[in-house]
Amino acid sequence: MDAPRWSRRLLAAAGLCLSMAAGTANAGDYVSLPGGSFASVIANDASGRLASVEAFEMRVTPVTQEEFERFVERQPQWRRDRIASVLADAGYLSDWASPTQGPVGESPHRPVTHVSWFAAQAFCESEGARLPSWSEWEYAAAADETRRDARADPQWRSRILSWYSRPSTQPLRAVGAAPNVYGLRDMHALVWEWVDDFNALLVDADSRSGDDPDKLKFCGAGAINLQQRENYAVLMRVALLSSLRASDSTASLGFRCVRPIESQTREAP
Amino acid sequence: MRSQKTSVVKSFASICLFAAAGVAFAGTNAAKPAPGKWAGDFGPPQGAPIHAVLTSPPHVPPPTNRSYPAKVIVDLEVVEKEMPISEGVSYTFWTFGGTVPGSFIRVRQGDTVEFHLKNHPKNKMPHNIDLHGVTGPGGGAASSFTAPGHETQFTFKALNEGIYVYHCATAPVGMHVANGMYGLILVEPPKGLSKVDHEYYVMQGDFYTTGKYREKGLQPFDMEKAIDERPTYVLFNGAEGALTGDKAIAAKTNETVRLFVGNGGPNMVSSFHVIGAIFDKVRFEGGTEVQSNVQTTLIPAGGAAVVEFSTKVPGSYVLVDHSIFRAFNKGALAILKVNGPQDKAVYSGKELDAVYLGDRAQPNLEAVATATQAAAQGTLTLQDQVHAGQALFAGTCSVCHQSNGAGLPGVFPPLAGSDYLAADPSRAIGVLLQGLNGKVTVNGSEYNSVMPPMNQLNDDEVANILTYVLNSWGNPGGQIHTEDVRKVRAEKKPAPAQGEH
Amino acid sequence: MKTEHAASRGLARVHRAVMPALFAICAVLAVAGPAGAAPDAASPATASPLPGDSIYQLPVPLTDQTGRSFMLADRRGTPLVISMFYTSCQFTCPMLLEAVRATEMQLSMAQRNHVNVLLVSFDPAHDTVAVLARTAGERKVDDTRWSLARTDPVSVRKLAAVLGIQYRALGNGDFNHTTTLVLVDAQGRIVGRTNEMGGADPKFVKLLRGMTAAL
What we know:
The complex is a heterotrimer.
Chain A: H1 5-24, E1 30-33, E2 36-38, E3 51-53, E4 56-59, H2 65-74, H3 117-126, H4 134-141, H5 154-164, E5 192-193, E6 218-219, H6 232-242, E7 253-254, E8 258-259
Chain B: H1 8-20, E1 50-51, E2 71-86, E3 89-96, E4 105-108, E5 112-119, E6 130-131, E7 150-157, E8 162-167, H2 173-178, E9 182-188, E10 198-207, E11 217-219, H3 223-227, E12 233-236, E13 249-252, E14 255-265, E15 270-275, E16 279-283, E17 291-294, E18 296-299, E19 303-311, E20 315-321, H4 324-329, E21 333-339, H5 353-357, H6 365-377, H7 382-396, H8 398-401, H9 419-423, H10 427-434, E22 436-442, E23 445-451, H11 459-470, H12 482-491
Parallel strand pairs in B: 1-2, 2-5, 3-11, 4-9, 10-14, 13-21
Antiparallel strand pairs in B: 2-3, 5-7, 6-8, 8-9, 10-12, 14-19, 15-18, 15-20, 16-17, 16-19, 20-21, 22-23
Chain C: H1 6-32, E1 61-64, E2 69-71, E3 80-85, H2 92-105, H3 109-112, E4 116-121, H4 129-138, E5 146-150, H5 153-163, E6 167-169, E7 175-178, E8 181-184, E9 190-194, H6 202-213
Parallel strand pairs in C: 3-4, 4-5
Antiparallel strand pairs in C: 1-2, 1-5, 3-8, 6-7, 8-9
């Protein structure tokens, strides 16, 4: 890579800044996931090849209100009264009592929602991490308490679907439900979660067009066909993420972070 | 998908996208009044923009009464909410405008419709809308994909007149439709529809829950059943009893009724029939052709029809899906209550509702429920039994013995002032449990019919019905208890008994 | 950039010098604990504040086909046609370049000189400066107003997000992506976009003319 000297300096300075931030802040708990191949609902191309992910570490729970409050304290440019609208729209942290304080009367351990993709990215970067890719998220979420891939099990699917059938009139509960086989909690039944490439899912807004890609709109293979159409639980996630812009936020959308396995060594005491 | 949002600046962008998608009809800033090149395009909108009046089912907005194409603004909000689907059973519906089916939209052919779709911030899911009356990609679905807490807008010209279904088309489409995301949009012909006395909005849909039919509590959607096309409920307007009892639609005798009947599916085709009425006119499939003198009309899933008939005699006219188990075992039943003077020449005047409401009449179940509760608590009174018995009699016995106990001369013996009953009241228990055939003489007349055993009645019900009968129409009174019935049931085998005398 | 104001050129230099310093300050503040607001590292110091909906709120370091390095925000001050592509794209990317060219052809010489073009690559791994330079040569790109640029992968994702452009790596070097030309005003606000790649989109051209007429 022939990046110019000044930008390499910049990146180094950023790295220094981030690692120090990671050291002083309480980075959340992470667990390791092994890499592997799996059948994704999003086909890369017509070949039917399996998707694959490298080993990575993932936050055990979604980021909580409390953690996000601390982040906004440390990086006040991310307060809702200071942030540029191109990075977070009017809904950003709209349920907070004040620009620095979460909603009154709700658990500080509930997942933070009403956060834009840019804000979620910034939080993850502040602890030396990043948002998961769709593949990483899908891979981690395919597990249940005992199996790495429970997606073919109709019981698993209907458990997840039953969350969708509950209207979101109650406040969100605190994170910390039973862990899946990797030790991750609340991958389902709590909030939607941002992924890094949420805008890459390239689902046609009208999901019935099936095999009729509008080639002029999408270079390459055309709008991606969704595989496993009976796997409604995952399809709903793809649909939700495809409807969003990076500055959007919703009441049911939170996030968690991932980082490469080696980052463990970077944590300052 | 990444819909262009509706700020003033960005509406330019939405027009760009729309144009790029190849739809030629969206231009509202067209040149002066020449009609467009497509049939049904009567030129650019005239006059001030109109905000469409949307109505909740079963009501229909009034006719547009316009003779020119206008710009019509439609504001429709998607709300995900928990509502009852049956007695004691609730379901999380996803709704257009807070109801299932969604609000009824009425415009005129040639209108330019500016459609605003809002997704309530409390909703979890993204939604969009496909209007079958739109000529354009996805019927609008491509341009209206809306995240929770957002609003999208697109514009189309209603080129074709007719009655059209609209529904959500977000992945997974089947689930969005199964959760109630459908409704009707009427595009009036330029001269409007002929005048009728009443217009009503009815839409059939099939629902899939993990619990069984009428299993209590909040029931989640069952995807396996939906894929296998095994509905738990088949309903008009989204709930059992949505159009019965005091929510029945109404008319008077000698009036004309027009029903806009849609079928949201997702799976079942409807064999739509109104018991006691013949459709004078049916716009089958909602198209332009009209059929006359129709008893039952097919309404495809994702389709609609318009039926018209005139009311001649009073009574309760029952709307059903004539795939009949859906009407009586899954709830596909609605009532049109017609009030007014009898016309015996047309119809002799038997009560119709007794036959079809059966033992499932929503409003009448209360008396039965009260009696059941009282019996469980040991506080059952004669009055409780009489009231419960009356409710049950209406569905079961009045068919033959009439609601006033008069019977049918020469065919069914009377119960009113019956000497047969007075002679031995408890004998009637055996009659109900085992039936009665062969000759009997009641009040001096001979009867020789077959009364089938009432196998569907339990001990409580038999006791209550008999108590009611004994205390009505000049009968001697008295009380039959559940234990009496139990004893008789245990003693005798269920073989047809000879008529005793 | 012939038409860049001297002020904004000088600005770019100041910006480049200041950025590492700003990050160092940020690091110090992070250690010291939460205090007041950290300086907003994204906005260059200009007379008027940067609008909240300006794409220049996003810090994106870029290098173009001539080896020039600059920040996205350095383009502030002139209308900008911006999009994303990659050099080995066989299908719509060549059409994208031609669409930009066709659009420019609809402007007068004077108007053309008041518009910049910035095309950023989805594929920084393959699209090195040398590759970008070669592509620019093959397509006869005017280096004074057109930049074919690259940045780091994280910034590619962020830039695409702010422009509303979707893309996905297919693993064989190809990308699945939307093709959109975005028109941004002098302050960085998105004022128009087009997906028409068959030639110049008349509505897009009209917008451009409107913006360059005032200059």
